[in-house]
Inverse folding.
């Protein structure tokens, strides 16, 4: 029986296909293909291929026979090969979704393979509901987008809810890499990452978690190689998370985190929210001390680390920025390191942006800043503005240096300064160096690394160790500093 009658409207046709499927007169795979495609043979081939492959994986997870699994896999291979041949031959505009469709299909299959049997049935129900009961496609691309959104949102809700039978790890592992699946909020993307547990780690005792973000023209393997955090993690027993930006939108250098894009630095969307959801995913898999979640970054990773500290101020215990920029700074702040060419936002505007983002969630996140006065890419003024904006937002007087020390390590002169509140807590620390360029200081050899300098990773870990989350914040979301502290007034002013 033909499924492509020319004189029926799309809604009538969709209802008819659903009825035929329900009556058993048309196979589910054929009906799903016709429903999603809207009549296009090429799109129908892809839709049938997707349905067949999803069905094959779900069949394997639920223990169905291997013969059916092999037949479904073979059908998927034939359908997808046909779709590719016809797409190359005709070059039709409605094939614009091909690249996105393949990427999404690969991620979906990886997720399905990781699902336990208890969730496989729920996933099958979700797919059937979307395809056979609710879809009213106006075009093949709209249909595929709707399917992708529904599946991604359902999987995200299940993961965030900690559902029964949660997979023990990320869906995809390749050469130590794992895959974070895009969520349903705006700007979320699939991102790969590496998770490193200290040697001899067991999930019985909660451990600190340190998130380390790479810079531009790097990836997470580069920052892991040069930072030296792995050895510190084994010695001090903390967990390391190395995210990779993986993909991005907007004009930027290769692999930059988008610290200057408004869409990437606010809680609930974009890269900063992906990072927090990735932290939550790691917490669901391993015993993480919620009082000791820290973030550090280099260059653009430092800018995104600052954004995460602001957007999730009540979740991040403390953070560090190496050769970074302030929150909500513009791309004009990076102008070859020459102060005459760079254009910086006023410190008062940066502090106001921080206040607006934190709102009632306002909390002073202790901050460590490392920067070279000879940085040819990000001028030292960016580090000073970061320090001053933090101090202005939380009413800390940087004109009064509470503690300062100087020294020379491996021929590099450095100056370390602490700034404290009235309770004598060190809340901002700076390590300014003379000599090195733009990169990581005192680490191991590699791209954007200056081994002949003070070991900034040791300084950062010492700072993190001294600055856990206040237990009042971690347990209730509220922070009550001592009476008379300027932090109290800052919290009152911010409504926290």
């Amino acid at each position: 029986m033909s499924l492509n009658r020319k004189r029926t409207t799309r809604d009538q046709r969709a209802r008819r296909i659903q009825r035929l499927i329900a009556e058993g007169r048309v196979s589910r795979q054929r009906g799903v293909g016709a429903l999603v495609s809207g009549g296009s043979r090429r799109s129908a081939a892809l839709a049938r291929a997707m349905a067949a492959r999803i069905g094959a994986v779900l069949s394997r997870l639920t223990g169905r026979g291997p013969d059916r699994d092999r037949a479904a896999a073979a059908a998927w291979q034939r359908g997808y090969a046909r779709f590719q041949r016809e797409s190359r031959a005709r070059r039709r505009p409605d094939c614009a979704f091909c690249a996105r469709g393949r990427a999404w299909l690969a991620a979906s299959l990886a997720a399905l393979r990781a699902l336990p049997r208890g969730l496989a049935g729920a996933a099958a129900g979700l797919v059937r509901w979307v395809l056979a009961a609710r879809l009213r496609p106006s075009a093949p691309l709209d249909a595929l987008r709707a399917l992708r959104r529904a599946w991604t949102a359902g999987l995200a809700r299940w993961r965030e809810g900690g559902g029964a039978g949660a997979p023990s790890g990320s869906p995809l592992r390749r050469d130590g890499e794992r895959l974070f699946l895009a969520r349903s909020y705006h700007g979320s993307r699939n991102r790969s990452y590496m998770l490193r547990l200290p040697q001899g780690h067991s999930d019985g005792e909660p451990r600190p978690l340190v998130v380390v973000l790479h810079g531009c023209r790097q990836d997470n393997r580069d920052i892991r190689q040069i930072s030296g955090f792995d050895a510190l993690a084994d010695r001090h027993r903390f967990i390391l998370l190395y995210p990779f930006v993986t993909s991005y939108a907007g004009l930027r250098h290769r692999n930059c985190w988008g610290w200057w894009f408004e869409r990437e630095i606010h809680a609930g969307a974009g890269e900063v929210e992906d990072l927090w959801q990735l932290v939550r995913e790691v917490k669901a898999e391993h015993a993480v001390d919620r009082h000791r979640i820290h973030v550090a970054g280099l260059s653009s990773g430092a800018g995104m680390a600052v954004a995460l500290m602001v957007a999730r101020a009540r979740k991040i215990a403390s953070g560090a920025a190496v050769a970074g920029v302030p929150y909500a700074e513009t791309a004009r702040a990076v102008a070859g390191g020459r102060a005459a060419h760079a254009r910086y936002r006023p410190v008062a505007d940066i502090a106001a942006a921080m206040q607006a983002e934190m709102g009632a969630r306002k909390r002073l996140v202790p901050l460590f800043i490392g920067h070279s006065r000879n940085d040819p890419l990000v001028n030292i003024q960016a580090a000073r503005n970061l320090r001053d904006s933090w101090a202005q937002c939380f009413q800390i007087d940087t004109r009064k240096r509470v503690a300062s020390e100087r020294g020379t390590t491996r021929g590099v002169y450095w100056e370390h300064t602490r700034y404290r509140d009235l309770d004598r807590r060190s809340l901002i620390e700076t390590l300014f160096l003379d000599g090195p360029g733009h990169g990581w200081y005192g680490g191991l050899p590699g791209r954007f690394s200056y081994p002949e300098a003070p070991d900034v990773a040791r300084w950062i870990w010492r700072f993190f160790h001294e600055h856990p989350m206040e237990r009042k914040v971690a347990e209730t979301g509220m922070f009550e500093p001592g009476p008379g502290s300027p932090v109290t007034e800052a919290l009152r002013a911010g409504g926290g």
Q: What stands out?
A: The first helix runs from residue 10 to 23. The chain has a mean pLDDT of 74. The chain has 16 helices and 13 strands.
